[in-house]
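Priority: low. Protein: DUF2442 domain-containing protein. Input follows.
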Amino acid sequence: MSPKVVTVEPLTNYQLRLFFDNSEVRRFDVSPYLGKGIFQELKNGYYFNQVKPFFGGVQWPHEQDFGPDTLFLESVFERSWEAA
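Result:
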């Protein structure tokens, strides 16, 4: 079972900075998914920035989502962080 996302920050170029409950900060590239079905709506920058944590993963208002396993396994480690 993968760690869960507790905070997400949308970045430029369809990237997400993810803060996991195991104290890792990782970067996830959404761009490979933008040409696929429901994910095409994420090409709109305003809409992309509406991402929120959701049950350990992330979700947008129209229910596009990525689960914690995909996010953790396909993201790149940036650094560790300390939860407050």
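The chain has a mean pLDDT of 95. Strands lie at 5-10, 15-20, 24-29, 52-54, 57-59, 65-66, 76-80.
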